[in-house]
Amino acid sequence: MKSDTQGSKLLQGAFILSAAAIFSKLIGTLQKIPLQNLGGDAAFGIYNTVYPLYTILVTVAMLGLPAAISRFVAEASAAQDDQEGRRVLRLSAGITAVSGLILGVLVYTGAPVIAVWVGNSHITPALRSSAWGLAVVPLMAALRGYFQGLHNMMPTAVSQVVEQSVRVAVMIALLLYLTAAGADAAGIAAGALLGPAGGGLAGLAVMLLYWRSYRRRGLQDVMPHVPARGKPAAAEVRPERGANARKLLAYGLPVMLGALAVPLIGLVDVFTVPRLLTGSGSSETAAMAQFGIYNRGLPLVQIVTMLATSLSVVFIPALAEAKFQRNEDLIRTRITLSLRWFWLLGLAASVGLAVLAEPVNTALYGDAAGSGAMTWLAFTAAGGTVSIISAALLQGLGAVRAPALHLLAAAALKAALNLLLVPQQGITGAASAGGAAHLFAAALNVLLLYRQGYLRLRFADALLKPAALLAGLGLVAAAVSLAAGRAADAAGFGGGRTAALAQSLLGVLAGCAVFALGAVALRLLSENELRQLPGFGPRLADKLKKLRLFP
After folding, report:
1. The dihedral of CA 417, 353, 346, 385: what is its sign?
2. CB 3.0-4.6 Å disulfide test: which of 89, 442, 470, 509 passes with 387?
3. Cβ(350)–Cβ(404) under 8 Å?
4. Using the 8-state DSSP alphabet, how is residue 463 labeled?
5. pLDDT digits (tens, 9 = 90+) for 482-498
6. What is the model's pTM?
7. pLDDT at 314
8. String of b and e for 232-259 (b: at least 16 CB within 10 Å)?
9. Do residues 276 and 287 lie in contact, with contact meaning Cβ atoms separated by under 8 Å?
10. What is the pLDDT of residues 314-329, one digit of tens each?
11. Residue 13, number of CB atoms within 10 A of its CB
């Protein structure tokens, strides 16, 4: 009975955390659109140059300790030793706070040097603005790790939503103020990058309120069976702390290194594309504007990969459980079905965005600049989706290092292709290089699953049927969008953002309808197969059955 209650609590916590993560990431992704609309392409380019660097530095500052805190606090909780859990938190919070402050100071003072490495002096003010977030966010993450170790996901979920909401509010308020004051692109981007610090302070305040409430409730509410303990003597605590620091770092640093592999492909663009554009004859301002135009398609691609990331957490425990039970057939079925369907969904999103690139670009950003690059960038959704899901499948089977190494190889390919293509093709070359790099990472993961004997590949299901389905999707979406555009022209309001929005929405709806009907007609997924997918499979099968979509 106790095990069932604990399992229910874990599932409820995972749902809360996943919902908050999706909402927070959606806010964080869509906030880039008003940034470009208000600040312009140059400010957008500077922001998209600095923010990946900030993400990398925050990951380094945290040293993987939130995951380590979660693990060791969970162990202390299981042993009913709350004092040990709090010792772990104090030690980890001190380490992350110091590392965040050190990195923040280094970034602030070394911003001109980093700007030289990137090849654009306009990013210096934005780098200095981002340094303030480094001083706050790692400490907030440490507190989140503590509550997650107690299987209490609500503080993390609430702080994530508050952090992202305040971050976007601060960014937009500063954008409105700075644009009204006539600030240049560098100043506007610097203001936008104060958002992470504002959001981090708000998220930290939420976590401190939860911590204060937790302390007030007292030990008996959280761990009712823990006996009261006196405070250990200083002589007893010091050696334990030394041992805990080594254990925490030994667990956390590999986690940090694995997390650093994920944003590496984006970081390659930061250090190569602006410099290559400048080397091809563009001024620093023009290079930042082009880099901003290049990044227009990323929020849309990130929505697709964000959903894949959120759903991927379902597969890791499901596969780990099947492997523990030595149920090889179930492992193969789940891997094959999940890869087949995420491949289809990623391709559908890529084809849809590719054929609708021009109206989508105009609707969101006010003009069609860079639509060709957006068309190529769209195909990163297919490779990125399969890369994320296949990495989760490998992790569920215990292969933790392989996905990170594959991402490193993909980043190296991205760098080589950027050097080859950007001087001749500009941002279009960078976009096509991105699609190739993500597909390469996905192919390496899938090949490893195949070699391990966990993947059944059928040519018709993997290529022929998807090609027919996607050809129909693309043709119908393009035709409907074109017809809507001509109707808008005939009505006298064509060429504007409203008409482009109508074209985009109608094209998306038509594409979705073709995808749903075509998938059923081509027998790409049966009811029985859908029910075997972990988590959402049975519920989705019930809904589709009610709609009579299964034969």
Report:
1. positive
2. 442
3. no
4. I
5. 999 888 888 877 678 88
6. 0.78
7. 59
8. eeeeeeeeeeeebeeebbebbebbbebb
9. no
10. 565 566 666 667 777 7
11. 19
